């Protein structure tokens, strides 16, 4: 039996676009940090408490969204949240199990770096230099010089991509790409009939809606508290080294479009109150992300600057 099609308004189109962009942010959110952890060979920069509380909040968010009858895109995002959290937690636990070296010994190897080495490329350069020293004793001649040139080139690429203007250009290009992919995805879904405006009214019984709200507020509390251990960890170590700035940029953008997508769908009182915990969880954490951005700036400025080459 065919159902009545809900007309597409400008606000509903904006809600769909923003929801799709938010979904794209969450799909790619963990990729920069997973790559950063893999390149460093550890996940020491990430607070496990941060990730664990975030994971608990995502589980409550998913359960609450299902019970409250939220729009499908929000439920889909909540499902992916849980999957992505599991991947990051698994990686962090793997590196912690593999490297149980005390923190003071681990930090001592990076306290006196070569002042001419760009800050964000130290670990990669150090590992390349170490491998070069090991290979120099057994390989000589033209092949050794060739490998050395390749390693220098790789180090230069990593350092240039993660330092200064190159890093900002990479992050900006990534954000533009997220918008393009998200908007293209929504357009294709709408054109093919896979997406249509969702009704504002909820058909869920009142007891399920109330239970969903309770879980929603609990998830919002977890989201607001999850970043506090990471902020404190950055503050106590006076460093954000090992954290991916793009990870937090995508988090901020995802939360912004997530909350805006809800508000564009409707601002009626009943709908607003139903979605209030999810608005608190998404828009509220943006303030904490800004604090982490400030930490990136402050602690990068405190690091010794590379000496000028004369």
UniProtKB/TrEMBL annotation:
Reactions accelerated catalytically: L-histidine(out) + L-arginine(in) = L-histidine(in) + L-arginine(out)
Record GO terms (molecular function): basic amino acid transmembrane transporter activity
Basic and acidic residues bias spans: 123-133
Topology in the lipid bilayer: Multi-pass membrane protein
Subcellular localization: Membrane
GO biological process: vacuolar transmembrane transport
Spans through the membrane: 13-31, 43-64, 70-95, 172-189, 209-226, 246-264, 276-296
Record-given protein name: Vacuolar membrane PQ loop repeat protein
Organism: Penicillium olsonii
Biological classification of the source: Eukaryota, Fungi, Dikarya, Ascomycota, Pezizomycotina
